[in-house]
UniProtKB/TrEMBL annotation:
<dbReference type="InterPro" id="IPR041729">
    <property type="entry name" value="Formyl-FH4-Hydrolase_C"/>
</dbReference>
<comment type="pathway">
    <text>Purine metabolism; IMP biosynthesis via de novo pathway; formate from 10-formyl-5,6,7,8-tetrahydrofolate: step 1/1.</text>
</comment>
<keyword id="KW-0378">Hydrolase</keyword>
<keyword id="KW-0658">Purine biosynthesis</keyword>
<dbReference type="Pfam" id="PF01842">
    <property type="entry name" value="ACT"/>
</dbReference>
<dbReference type="InterPro" id="IPR044074">
    <property type="entry name" value="PurU_ACT"/>
</dbReference>
<dbReference type="InterPro" id="IPR002912">
    <property type="entry name" value="ACT_dom"/>
</dbReference>
<dbReference type="InterPro" id="IPR045865">
    <property type="entry name" value="ACT-like_dom_sf"/>
</dbReference>
<dbReference type="GO" id="GO:0008864">
    <property type="term" value="F:formyltetrahydrofolate deformylase activity"/>
</dbReference>
<dbReference type="Pfam" id="PF00551">
    <property type="entry name" value="Formyl_trans_N"/>
</dbReference>
<comment type="similarity">
    <text>Belongs to the PurU family.</text>
</comment>
<feature type="domain" description="ACT">
    <location>
        <begin position="6"/>
        <end position="84"/>
    </location>
</feature>
<protein>
    <recommendedName>
        <fullName>Formyltetrahydrofolate deformylase</fullName>
        <ecNumber>3.5.1.10</ecNumber>
    </recommendedName>
</protein>
<dbReference type="GO" id="GO:0006189">
    <property type="term" value="P:'de novo' IMP biosynthetic process"/>
</dbReference>
<comment type="function">
    <text>Catalyzes the hydrolysis of 10-formyltetrahydrofolate (formyl-FH4) to formate and tetrahydrofolate (FH4).</text>
</comment>
<dbReference type="GO" id="GO:0006730">
    <property type="term" value="P:one-carbon metabolic process"/>
</dbReference>
<feature type="active site">
    <location>
        <position position="223"/>
    </location>
</feature>
Length: 278
């Protein structure tokens, strides 16, 4: 039975890598549907995404790659399959609503296993789309205690990724380490500008002429994880902080769903604290 899988290769750059990898695919009688590659010139690191169709023997294919590619290489063979996510929320509805609506109408190909909130505000919206909603309140708990309960609830659903759809709490290092490069956040500024809380108020006070949004993987530094997608819109002196916030919400939800499309399609390589999008 024919399958479609995605081969992700990262290794030190050297002559003939594309030929070597594609010859191995040919040897395994795999059809290349799409292929893209990139070399990071400063570090001489090679990245390649290859979409393959055929009858796979994963173990033998990966063994051939290991034998052929230079030392320090990494490679993954991933099924081209629908991803499963858990969404974390607080009170703001626009990013969650956009994901729910696009999933419902087929604009975003993903399975939403559950939505988890530290407030109950978005339960009704979530359940209108027949998605389970769970309240995991932070009241009376330390951040570590709350994040532990959060992780326990998430793990019941075994998601591929976790999406922070305007989840307004900082997650502790233990939580971050539990899901490396699997938690996607939307931040309401064009990072690295205005890290942290109240970016629209600070943008207004600074008199900026553009505002934006940034989707990124989280790490242990607040709003400094590898950036996946960004966009901006123009503003001027007539915008209040509230007007900037209202205008920015459309950018936030668009940037988040576009980033999720890239992540779900296995187009994002994380390298150092950056991403390579192929």
């Amino acid at each position: 039975m024919l399958e479609t899988k995605i081969l992700l290769t990262e290794c030190p750059d050297s002559t003939g890598l594309v030929a070597k990898i594609t010859n191995i695919c040919y040897k395994h009688q795999l059809n290349i549907l799409k292929n893209s590659e990139f070399v990071e010139n400063e570090t001489k690191r090679f990245f390649m995404r290859t979409e393959l169709e055929g009858i796979f023997n994963d173990q033998t294919l990966l063994a051939d790659l290991q034998f052929t590619l230079p030392e320090g290489s990494s490679y993954q063979l991933k099924p081209k399959a629908r991803k499963r996510i858990v969404i974390l929320v607080t009170k703001e509805a626009h990013c969650l609503g956009d994901i729910l609506m696009k999933t419902y109408y087929g604009g975003l190909d993903v399975e939403i296993a559950a939505v988890v909130g530290n407030h109950d505000s978005l339960r009704q919206l979530t359940e209108r789309f027949d998605v389970p909603f769970h309240l995991v309140s932070h009241e009376g708990l330390t951040r570590v205690e709350h994040d532990k309960l959060l992780a326990e609830k998430i793990d019941q659903y075994n998601p591929d990724y976790i999406v922070l759809a305007k989840y307004m709490r900082v997650l502790n290092p233990e939580f971050v380490a539990r899901y490396p490069n699997r938690v996607v956040n939307i931040h309401h500024s064009f990072l690295p500008a205005f890290i942290g809380a109240k970016p629209y108020q600070r943008a207004y006070e600074r008199g900026v002429k553009i505002i934006g949004a940034t989707a990124h993987f989280i790490n242990n530094e607040l709003d400094e994880g590898p950036i996946i997608m960004q966009n901006v819109i123009n503003v001027d002196h007539t915008y209040t902080a509230d007007a900037m916030m209202r205008a920015g919400r459309d950018v936030e939800k668009t940037v988040l769903t576009r980033a999720l499309e890239l992540v779900f399609d296995e187009r994002v390589f994380v390298y150092q604290n950056k991403t390579i999008i192929l």
